[in-house]
Amino acid sequence: MVLHAQREPLRLEELPVPEPGPGEVRLRVLVCGVCRTDLHVVDGELTRPKLPLVPGHQIVGVADDGRRLGVPWLGWTCGECRFCMSGRENLCVRARFTGYDLDGGYAEYAVADGRFCFPIPDGYPDEQAAPLLCAGLIGYRALRFAGDGERLGLYGFGAAAHIVAQVARYEGRRLFGFVRAGDEAARRFALELGCEWAGDSLEPAPEPLDAAIVFAPAGELVPAALRATDRGGVVVCAGIHMSEIPSFPYELLWEERVVRSVANLTRSDGEEFLALAPRVPVRTEVETYPLERANEALDRLRRGEVRGAAVLTI
Ligand SMILES: [Zn+2]
Ligand SMILES: [Zn+2]
Question: Which ligand is nearest to the CA of 310?
């Protein structure tokens, strides 16, 4: 499924089977998760994709040598910039991203730099494993940046929050779910995932939070989350794109509250999270679509109708 121009539907096309270059592996794609970032690429909110582009960066596939591997968003880094040299390859100035700078997994075959692929933990069916590769990994990085506080707020109950909620419960935290006012389905989903309270995202929870993670791409949630957070609390913005954050009074930030973003992932995030996921154990809830219905999966995600994560099956 190929993107030729942003804000146009993907087109089903026959492409040659890609040949792996030096250091690359070729995968027969089994499934590919659909991430909100894919939507930002298709809809033009991320402005510099390679075109034409095969989107998709939560690839589970079988390599030519028979290993089952996952391919994440971080597709290549330079290894020599000051970020790469200081354990922050997620910030590499020359990084290339799967399904953005590099063709991704909305296809029958993909090639990827072998150094950036992860073995998929045994015991995970392909379609359940796919959302671990971005929703899970980036959600996990966001959770680490949220600190060790007990009372955690999650804003937006999509693929990432439904995984992070399970990890946070496993760590013994108390969870508060914030959803769009009137979205009863999302509110129930948040409660099923172990939130002790779930309600309107623009109102505070019954008690102050130690940390909040904002997954929904809505800037107005940042001051709302600060307002819901106790002194010393942290608000982590986990998405790659967000609408403009409205101005807010300094007193919302005062008392050492922190707002920060999370960008991309490092390979060590991947190794840590994929070792942790089976211990929790993280169970992902997925809706599957055949590859040629990728546009429909993206539409449902755009309308906020996907429960858990959407995954394309090839
Ligand atoms: Zn670099
Ligand atoms: Zn993603």
Answer: 2
169: CA distance to ligand 2 center in Å? 23
Ligand located closest to 95 CA: 1
Compute mean pLDDT per 10 residues along the chain, 314 residues long, and list them. Answer: 98 97 98 96 97 98 97 98 98 98 98 98 96 96 97 95 97 97 94 96 94 96 98 96 97 98 96 97 97 98 93 97
Q: 35 CA distance to ligand 2 centroid (A)?
A: 5
Phi then psi dihedrals of residue 208, to 5 deg: -65, 150
Contact between residue 104 and residue 57 where contact means Cβ atoms under 8 Å apart? yes
Give the three-state DSSP class for 298: helix
Whole-number Å distance, alpha carbon 96 to ligand 1 midpoint, is 10
Instruction: Tell how far the Cα of 199 is from the centroid of ligand 2, in angstroms.
Output: 26
State the Cα–Cα distance between residues 15 and 246, nearest whole angstrom: 44
Which domains are delineated in the chain?
Answer: 24-133+284-313 (3.90.180.10), 137-261 (3.40.50.720)
Cα–Cα distance measured from residue 28 to residue 271, given in angstroms and rounded to the nearest whole number: 22
Ligand nearest to the CA of 104: 2
Give pLDDT, residue 308.
Answer: 93
CA 117 and chain centroid, separation: 16
Distance 100 CA to ligand 2 centre (A): 11
Q: Which residue has the tokens 């029958």?
A: 108
Dist. CA 92 → ligand 1 center (Å): 4
pLDDT for position 112: 98
Please tell me the predicted confidence (pLDDT) of residue 124.
Answer: 96
Q: State the ligand closest to the CA atom of 93.
A: 1
